[in-house]
């Protein structure tokens, strides 16, 4: 059932253009945003996004979208912290729980903690019959199909797509997004399957780079804006399956500590589309280069023409509308982890010490 791929993870990475096309057909048909009518963002004053692991990083990206498109305060937390912190809740909050399995114990407990005390609970899940889907007021399936690899890949990008549609809906419900911007964002989301397909073409060059990455003891990922959570996700994916120590940082945090780690042996993976903040990220990257760190820059043609010189390696990505770059750059992040793990010979689909579904806390 691996469909000719060596691992489920490789198959699931490759499936993403089709998965997103399916989710787009459902959530963004020709008639426009398609979410349940009882999902209304107009009378709330706060959004809370709760999840664990990769699903938490999807929430962290979505925070940028809800704030930008809908101008609504949005907080994120990992479920294990949220549930025991017992935060004060309000009836004007909307709480969103994101989980591939729908069975993650901490996320379920956080949902139960919220259920009587917020305006509405929404589950964004892959398994529609799961506990989290059943217990939430509204369940939105991400339609990714069964995900077997312990490292979550297609569920992540499908979660992002559903959250992006929700954020656009929130912008519309709250009168914060004009028709032209909404149309442009909608079109950008619809272009994703094609762009993801193009990015899949990087698999071979990434496999070559992975031979060097597999030698590293530590690897850093840097990103800014909505690419910051993607840097965290890239690092999680890599450590999870290759067992190489990796950390993601907001680019601007580099000089507040992590730059002390940089020397010739430390690869620094910079995920930076040519966006509003590109110059700032480039200056952080140059600080790494001045200390002889091995910079791998993933950017578009424009970004690479400005900043590609002197890096250890570059990956040329297709251009994408700024807010949605994390969905596209998930592909090289996943492929870097995958090929590095393959180069190291680890058990990609069943990494040590990990379970696909974490049903105990
Ligand atoms: O099933 P869930 O989405 O609730 O799982 C959450 C995490 O356990 C999961 O994303 C984990 O971090 C993955 N192994 C990451 O690849």
Automatic annotation (TrEMBL):
- Keyword Repeat attributed: yes
Single GO MF descriptor? carbohydrate derivative binding
Superkingdom field: Bacteria
Give GO BP annotations, semicolon-separated: carbohydrate metabolic process; fructose 6-phosphate metabolic process; protein N-linked glycosylation; UDP-N-acetylglucosamine metabolic process
Enzyme Commission number, as recorded: 2.6.1.16
Task: Report the residue ranges that make up the SIS domain in this protein.
Answer: 37-177, 209-351
Catalyzed reactions = D-fructose 6-phosphate + L-glutamine = D-glucosamine 6-phosphate + L-glutamate
What is the purpose of this protein?
Catalyzes the first step in hexosamine metabolism, converting fructose-6P into glucosamine-6P using glutamine as a nitrogen source.
In the UniProt entry, which residues are flagged as the active site? Answer: 356 (for fru-6p isomerization activity)
What is this protein identified as? Glutamine--fructose-6-phosphate aminotransferase [isomerizing]
The keyword Transferase is assigned to this record? yes
- Keywords in alphabetical order: Aminotransferase, Cytoplasm, Glutamine amidotransferase, Repeat, Transferase
A single cellular component GO annotation:
cytosol
Q: Where in the cell is the protein located? A: Cytoplasm
Shown residues within the full chain: 244 to 604 of 604
Enzyme class label: transferase
Oligomer status and interactors: Homodimer.
């Amino acid at each position: 059932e691996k469909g000719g791929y060596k691992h489920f993870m490789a198959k699931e990475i490759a499936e993403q253009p089709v998965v997103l096309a399916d989710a787009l057909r459902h959530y963004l048909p020709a008639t426009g945003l398609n979410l349940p009518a009882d999902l209304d963002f107009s009378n709330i004053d706060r959004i809370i996004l709760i999840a664990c692991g990769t699903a938490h990083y999807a929430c962290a990206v979505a925070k940028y979208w809800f704030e930008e498109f809908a101008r609504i305060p949005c907080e994120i937390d990992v479920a294990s912290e949220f549930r025991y912190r017992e935060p004060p809740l309000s009836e004007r909050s909307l709480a969103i729980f994101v989980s591939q399995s729908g069975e993650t114990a901490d996320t379920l407990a956080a949902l139960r903690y919220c259920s009587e005390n917020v305006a509405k609970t929404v589950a964004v899940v892959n398994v529609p019959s799961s506990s989290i889907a059943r217990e939430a007021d509204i369940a939105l399936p991400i339609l990714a199909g069964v995900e077997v690899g312990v490292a979550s890949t297609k569920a992540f990008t499908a979660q992002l797509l559903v959250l992006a549609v929700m954020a656009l809906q929130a912008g519309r419900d709250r009168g914060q997004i004009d028709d032209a911007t909404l149309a442009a964002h909608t079109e950008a989301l619809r272009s994703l399957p094609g762009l993801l397909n193009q990015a899949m073409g990087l698999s071979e060059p990434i496999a070559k780079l992975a031979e060097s990455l597999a030698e590293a003891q530590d690897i850093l990922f840097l990103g800014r804006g909505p690419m910051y959570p993607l840097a965290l996700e890239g690092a999680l994916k890599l450590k999870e399956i290759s067992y190489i120590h990796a950390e993601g940082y907001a680019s601007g945090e580099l000089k507040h500590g992590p730059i002390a780690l940089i020397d010739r042996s430390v690869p620094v993976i910079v995920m930076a589309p040519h966006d509003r903040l590109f110059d700032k990220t480039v200056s952080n990257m140059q600080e790494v280069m001045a200390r002889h760190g091995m910079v791998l820059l993933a950017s578009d043609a424009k970004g690479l023409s400005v900043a590609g010189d002197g890096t250890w390696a570059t990956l040329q990505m297709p251009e994408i509308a700024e807010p949605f770059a994390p969905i596209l750059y998930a592909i090289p992040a996943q492929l870097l982890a995958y090929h590095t793990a393959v180069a190291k010979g680890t058990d990609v689909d069943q990494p040590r010490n990990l379970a696909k579904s974490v049903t105990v806390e």
